Amino acid sequence: MKPTINIGIIGLGIVGCGALKILQENKNEIALKVGSELRVKRIADLDIERERPVEFDRSILTTDAYEIINDPEIDIVVELIGGVKPAGKFIMDAIKNGKHIVTANKALIAQEGHPLLEEAGNRKQDFFFEASVGGGIPIIRPLKICLAGNKIEQVIGIVNGTTNYILTRMSQDGQDFSDALAEAQRLGYAEADPTNDVEGFDAAYKISILASIAFTSRVDVKGVYHEGITKLTKRDTAYARDLGYCVKLLAIAKRNNGAMEIRVHPAFIPQTHPLASVNDVYNGIFVKGNAVGDVMFYGQGAGAMAAGSAVVGDIIDIARNINCGATGRISCTCFENKAMLSMDDVVTKYYIRMQTADRPKVLASIANIFGDNDVSIASVLQKTRGHNGEAEIVWITHEVKEKNFRTALAAIEKLPVVAQVSNWIRVED
Amino acid sequence: MKPTINIGIIGLGIVGCGALKILQENKNEIALKVGSELRVKRIADLDIERERPVEFDRSILTTDAYEIINDPEIDIVVELIGGVKPAGKFIMDAIKNGKHIVTANKALIAQEGHPLLEEAGNRKQDFFFEASVGGGIPIIRPLKICLAGNKIEQVIGIVNGTTNYILTRMSQDGQDFSDALAEAQRLGYAEADPTNDVEGFDAAYKISILASIAFTSRVDVKGVYHEGITKLTKRDTAYARDLGYCVKLLAIAKRNNGAMEIRVHPAFIPQTHPLASVNDVYNGIFVKGNAVGDVMFYGQGAGAMAAGSAVVGDIIDIARNINCGATGRISCTCFENKAMLSMDDVVTKYYIRMQTADRPKVLASIANIFGDNDVSIASVLQKTRGHNGEAEIVWITHEVKEKNFRTALAAIEKLPVVAQVSNWIRVED
Fold first, then answer.
1. Could you tell me how far CA B315 lies from the centroid of its own chain?
2. Which of A163, A176, B38, B71 is deepest in the core (most CB within 10 A)?
3. Which among B303, B313, B333 is the nearest to A149, CB-wise?
4. 3-state SS string over A304-322?
5. What are the chain A neighbours of B333 within 8 Å (beta carbons)?
6. How does DSSP classify residue A340?
7. Nearest CA in chain B to A134
8. In Å, how far is A138's CA from the nearest CA of chain B?
9. Which candidate in A206, A248, A254, A338 is catalytic?
């Protein structure tokens, strides 16, 4: 056996407890795989009094993260406090003190990861963040290593478990958004302030990270279009089902003529698509490579043990690198600065649901405006609703530039016969 | 850039051509990722005249594999001829000459991998075989690295595309086995002699490889029970559907009280199981870890470019190891020699279809024999067939030891009222 490798954990919340538990329970197997004992030497958290769902020697607790960052015996610093501040400073200081880093912090990596990765890379130190996307699902390493021979064409992910749970309830049980959200909150799947999840911020961080690896180009998350699921209704999820689709919050990254097309929004996908069967809090990440074709990675996107599994996988990888003197072996692979495609130039299909007057030529007048803007129609469904002279029309378009679609929609909304465009959702085949 | 890394390929068949094409098409991206140019210096094949679906400088062709194995300039030997002989000798000689190895040869790894892996490990040389299971799907590295913090409880795979294609046609189109096989042969998905696939040999090799990694224990493929799909009929696939299942050829590996339970056979799985939506020639590998929970890996299990993707991923990983002096970084992880569970002691559920006399007390007399052997019944379905006085009875049991089940079945087959036990299939929930 080689010398013990010392670990410091900053942040003993849900994921921290999971990682600690795994390191304890699987201690012997891990030592055999690494060739060293892994020892959690110190844990920092602002709250060192609270009971935790894992037993450990509480004398290693400290409220001062710098007792870890400045400890010359500690080899690996695991940052699990989340958020940009003070996590970013902790990590930078730890790197400068020669520590290897493991983090699950998607907000930090997506917004301010560059200087951290660069500093670690220059110093030949490891900086791993497998748990930042997809919880326990192996996805970052498979993209960086196993699929490294590919030019990755697309990454399409269901990467937010909270919204996927809500959408599953809406689709399967006919719930409306607010009821499904309330249930998710009751079950602990959604936070009291659910904005970060339901408005797509979380998914935007994650797809930025995946896209930067897939396309070997730095992605500025500020340029990533994101739209949440709050405007979806059970009428939309029901229409989706009737039309052979289901509704998912997709995080999409595609190569598009040398630029990167990256966007997060609810979308119709065919019920036969591999991602369509990713339900409840599960995540699924669908990757298309120019060699491998379609592959999908599926599993629990969150939770103490699942995310802890990814954190411990990173720790083991670093420990193996330490033991063969190969830390910094694979560092940042963003060799390029590709342009981001504007949403105006995105080409996709659309579902539109609108309330109109129920009389002759209404459909024709709307279809004319679509046609004037090069929006061609794949299917249309008209339903009379009650006796108030109102109809509901549902359209599915062929592929068209978002700019043209939006221009058409603005003109249609002004038609006197159109009471309301109730919703529109992009369709991904 | 570091010095060029030289590659020799032995066997320029389907996968060899795929790997060569990928190395050419994605040359620049790969060089950036590795930090070196990768150069295919020499290719050996018995047939150097045939046209191939890839353009390359044919002067590098040779019929003599030892022009690669003995070339001191070559760093990585890629073995793609398949089969145990002479591939095993080629690889051992190459290892002894200091070469790192990439192979897709599941039969060799499963049957005679041990001394090769040991020799490479002792010499700190890399020996990778990601393409041996699941084609392009990343599965071996995720198990060895990303999920290394887990005690893996189960691996259940659809790892043979040929049989999955046949079963998909039987299930979806109501074809019988022989028609579906003929179609698979016409499309190039099945070989003229399909024994290796349809009798489950191929899947047995693959699950042996996965189990040895998942359970960190050497698996002797000779001890792996395997049963093919040739006895399945369209009546069975139709009953499966009606009962909420689908039929898949499963390769199963489970931890069972310190022993390993490894078996390959057709099985009913619920239509809601993630593996149930793995259709046609696709593969899916479902893994349960004590930390990560359930994860699934999905993609094309065969084909030039998909398997080529895995081969090139291995090459890139070795090249990165060469460039940081860390070859042999992760070698064989079989630290144990766990016992294999006998099929007699396997506990599972069963579907049984039988033809019986259509008269009172037949069902009771069969049910009694089941009961006498501790086989308890979850559901039973009886159908009268025509007017010949014969009935068809379909049973689903609860969990029971295979030994008890087989004893019951042998007794039932001897009952005068039982014309025939037409088929029985294990049920995995």
1. 22
2. A163
3. B313
4. HHHHHHHHHHHHHHHHHHH
5. 32-33
6. B
7. B295
8. 6
9. A206
> ω into residue B86 within 30 of 0, thus cis?
yes
Which residues on B lie below 8 Å from A157 (Cβ)? none
Query: pLDDT tens, B359-418?
Result: 889 999 999 999 999 999 999 999 877 667 789 999 999 999 999 999 999 999 999 999
CA distance B201 to A172: 40
B325 and A326: CB-CB below 8 Å? Answer: yes
**B206 classed as catalytic:** yes
Identity at B238, one-letter amino acid code: A
Helix (H, G, I), strand (E, B) or coil at A60: helix
CA Rg value for chain A: 24
Q: Is the CB of B150 less than 8 angstroms away from the CB of A296?
A: no
How many angstroms away from the CA of B273 is the closest CA of chain A?
Answer: 9
- Candidate from B298, B315, B329 with C-beta closest to A296: B298
Residue A401, Cβ density class (10 Å: 0-12 exposed, 13-18 middle, ≥19 buried):
middle
* Structural domains in chain B, sorted by start: 2-136+304-323 (3.40.50.720), 140-300 (3.30.360.10), 344-427 (3.30.70.260)
User: B188 CB contacts (<8 Å, ≥6 apart)?
Assistant: none
End-to-end CA distance of chain B: 52
Whether residues B297 and A300 touch (CB distance < 8 A) is answered with: no
Residue contact A325–B326, C-beta within 8 A? yes
Residue with tokens 């997709």: A250
Q: If you search the block for the tokens 């013990």, which residue do you land on?
A: A4
Confidence of residue B240 (pLDDT cuts 50, 70, 90): very high
Say whether the ipTM exceeds 0.90: yes
Instruction: Determine the distance in angstroms separating the CA of B27 from the nearest CA of chain A, rounded to an integer.
Output: 9
Instruction: Choose among A258, A151, A265: nearest CA to A214.
Output: A151
Residue among A288, A429, A289 at smallest CA distance from A347: A429
CA distance B99 to chain A (A): 19
Q: Which residues of A touch B155 (CB under 8 A)?
A: none
Alpha carbon distance, N-terminus to C-terminus of chain A: 52
How far is Cα B31 from Cα B9, in angstroms, rounded to an integer?
Answer: 19
pLDDT given for residue A384 in this prediction = 78
Neighbours of B9 (CB within 10 A): 28
Interchain pair B295, A292: CB under 8 A: no
The tokens for A301 are: 């996107």
User: Are B291 and A142 inside 8 Å of each other by CB?
Assistant: no
In this complex, do B22 and A291 lie within 8 Å of one another by their Cβ atoms?
yes
CB atoms within 10 A of CB B53: 10
Among B280, B278, B286, B425, which residue's Cα sits nearest to residue B349? B425
Question: A215 — phi, psi (to 5°)?
Answer: -105, 10
- Do the Cβ atoms of B374 and B404 come closer than 8 Å? yes
Task: Return averaged pLDDT per consecutive 10 residues of chain A, 429 residues in all.
Answer: 96 97 97 97 97 96 98 98 97 98 97 96 98 97 97 98 97 95 95 96 98 96 97 96 96 96 98 93 97 97 95 98 95 92 98 93 95 96 79 97 98 96 96
Tally of CB atoms within 10 A around B396? 18
Question: Do residue B23 and residue A333 have CB atoms under 8 angstroms apart?
Answer: no
**A33 token code pair:** 């795989």
User: Which residue is closest to B310 within chain A, CA to CA?
Assistant: A146
pTM: 0.96
* Nearest beta carbon to residue A293 from set B29, B292, B305: B305
Q: Residue B175 in contact with residue B210, Cβ under 8 Å?
A: no
Q: Find the catalytic residue in B21, B41, B206, B349.
A: B206
Which of A145, A246, A255 would you mutate first to test chain B, the one with the most B CBs within 10 A? A145
d(CA A118, CA A141): 18
Phi, psi of B329, deg, nearest 5: -60, -45
